[in-house]
Amino acid sequence: MRGMLMSSYFFEGGLHGENAHVDPLEVFEGLRWEMSGGKPANCPYSVWQILNHMIFWQDFYLSYLKGRVPNHPEHDEDSWPDETAPSNKTKWSDALFLFSKGIKEAENEAKKDLKELKDVGLGRTRGDILATLMAHNSYHTGQIALIRQLIGEWPPPSW
Fold it and tell me: β-strand 124-125 against 117-119: which pairing, if any?
C-alpha cells in the first residue's frame, strides 16, 4: 500500500481530487468575480480569501520542492488576505491563473523522486510535502464548494 501512496500517479490524481471530490481547479468554474467575496452568515472567509490562502500555502510548499526554505508566517492568520473580495475581474483571473500554475508545478514535482529529502530540518520528502499540499487543497476545496452552495453559486455551469 505504501508503494501506491508514494506513486506519481497517486499525486497527479490526488492533486485534482480524482475519485474523491471536485477538482480544485473546477471548483471555481463559472463563479463570477463579483460573487467570490460573498460570505454567508457566520462564515469566517469568502471564496476569494480561501483561494488566496490556498495560493499562499501552495507557493510555500512548492518553494521547499524547488530547494528554497520559505519563511513560515509568525501566525497562521498571516496567510489569510485582509480583503474579502477582488476589486476587479483582472485580480480574480490573475489569482485563478496563479493557483492553476501552482497545481501544474506540483504535477511536475510528482514526476520526480518522491523519496528525495526536501525539508532536511523536519525530515520530509518530496512525497511528504506533496501529500501535505494535496490535503490542504482538498480541505479548502470542500469549503469553497460549500460556500458556493450557501451563496447560490453552485453547481458549476458544466455540471
Answer: antiparallel
Asked if the 2-150 domain carries CATH number 1.10.1040.10, the reply is: no
- Using the structure block, give the residue that is written with the C-alpha cell 513560515: 72
| pTM, 2 dp | 0.90
Three-state DSSP at 154 gives coil
* Cβ(88)–Cβ(57) below 8 Å: no
Q: What is the pLDDT of residues 89-106, one digit of tens each?
A: 999 999 999 999 999 999
3-state DSSP of 38-77: CCCCCCCCCHHHHHHHHHHHHHHHHHHHCCCCCCCCCCHH
Neighbours of 39 (CB within 10 A): 17
Contact indicator for 39, 84 with CB cutoff of 8 Å = yes
Can you give the residue ranges of every domain in the chain? 2-150
